[in-house]
Amino acid sequence: MGTMAGPAFDTEALRRGIEGHNAADLLSLYADDAEMTIVDRNTQPSHPMIKHGRGEIAEMLNDVYSRDMTHKLEECVVQGDHVAFTESCQYPDGVRVLASSMISLRDGKIVEHTLLQAWDE
């Protein structure tokens, strides 16, 4: 008796969205009820920024990927219903950002996304 695998996570859409500055491609990867938790210098672990649902996530993605900066998907590992990836970014003035993400999937769509980011100061 075999087991049925769920829908596969679209890592190429992830790469296209990140490297092509395409928030719509990225948003297509999220479930309607997804939640994103962001931890960085301004939103520390005891008080993270939390985005609920595709609408709030879309606002953040549209802001980030409309900025004048480069984005590169460095590494991406998919194991079952979990995805981990790193993204490096650079502003024109040379300021760099490094982000690390851990994602949980349901039916091939992102339902939980924890993002840790650090940037040059």
From TrEMBL:
SUPFAM superfamilies: NTF2-like. Residues 14-113 form the SnoaL-like domain. Pfam families: SnoaL_2. It comes from the Bacteria. This is Nuclear transport factor 2 family protein.
